[in-house]
Amino acid sequence: MAKEGYALIHRAAKNGHLRVLEFLLENGVDVDHETNQGTALSIAAQHGHLKTFEYLIKCEADIERGSPFGEAIVSGYQSVVKLLLEKGADTNGIHKMKARWGSVESNITMLGLVVIRSGHPFVKILLERGADVDLVAEEGESTPLVWAIARDREEIFALLLQ
Fold first, then answer.
1. CATH class assigned to 91-162
2. What pTM was estimated for this model as a whole?
3. What's the pLDDT tens digit per position in 4-40?
4. Which one in 56, 69, 102, 134 has a CA-CA gap of 20 to 30 Å to 83?
């Protein structure tokens, strides 16, 4: 295992190696082992490995730990997002934006994340599932409506107003 805790289960999830995951989990590896890069489930969501993702869900991986919902949104994997919603993912959850090149980590709501990643068809899906348009992750953060205006996303702004 590397210093930051990245283990074989994470590598298998990243590369979609279902047989390796099966072996590891059958031999006692913790399905929810978390590193600074997330859990196996969040890594599978980030890379869109649906079969791997489904297997980890079947093995009772925690769908909130490591923000797999946020990772699926960021990466644009609609099938993973829909599966997470079916399993009860929190549409008003908070996603921790990972630091890039020395920048500061920040938190954002799932709906805010969808709005700033505007190319994804998830705004309507989250709104239909009860996402709160006024929710912010931390004091001083913009609401999804403000994000839509700031990013000139007229269609998203109209959806948020409904």
1. mainly alpha
2. 0.85
3. 667 899 999 999 999 999 999 999 999 999 988 889 9
4. 134
